[in-house]
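sanity check this fold:
=====
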Amino acid sequence: MSNLTWDWTAITGNMDVLLYGAWLTIKISFISLIISLPIGIIFGLGRLSKNPVIRFIAGAYVEIMRGVPLLVLLMWIFFGLSAVLDAAFGIELNTYAASIIGLSTFAGAFLAEIFRSGVQAVPKGQMEAARASGMTHTQAMIHVILPQAIRRILPPTASQFIMLIKDSSLISVIGGVDLMLKAKNIVASSFAALEIYTAVAVIYFIMTFALSLIIRYFEKRMQKNEL
């Protein structure tokens, strides 16, 4: 039985590559969050629509996206949707585009529920008071309801960004360049799986923990401003 040794040089010698991978992970996650925000708003409002067709479409999107594993969605987009787009329009999705589309559509479903619950958390009397003052339903939603809902949805939206960072590790399966793919490449050449994947776990923890501290800080600031 061979002795287990720890090779620090496998980590220190590849730290620049791992940190660059971490930067790519944050970049892809942030872009996906920005794209998923309007998706969440549109389908969140769709879930609240009085039109049954719109409500059904929005509900179907949310339930399907929440019910399908992200890994399956990413592979379907990269191998399935890309082939359809290539055959129909000559558009072939690269791993970067497929990763962004997959993460955005997946996160959009969760943000839709966050947005819906945020709007519903605003007391109904606010809408009634706005309508009584002469505002239309749309005007009341934009000027009265949404500003109050946004304050309620900011913390869970920030938490969704943390989830995106962790979920983005799956894009390496389709060849998406991020921290996990960089780590896999290093392990393939150095065979230092324990050291590299331990370093990756620590880097992911540092990124998510730092973001959680920032979120808590702004939550406290918002609570003080509301007092």
The first helix runs from residue 8 to 12. The chain is about 85% helix and 0% strand. Residues 8 and 195 are 7 Å apart (CA to CA).
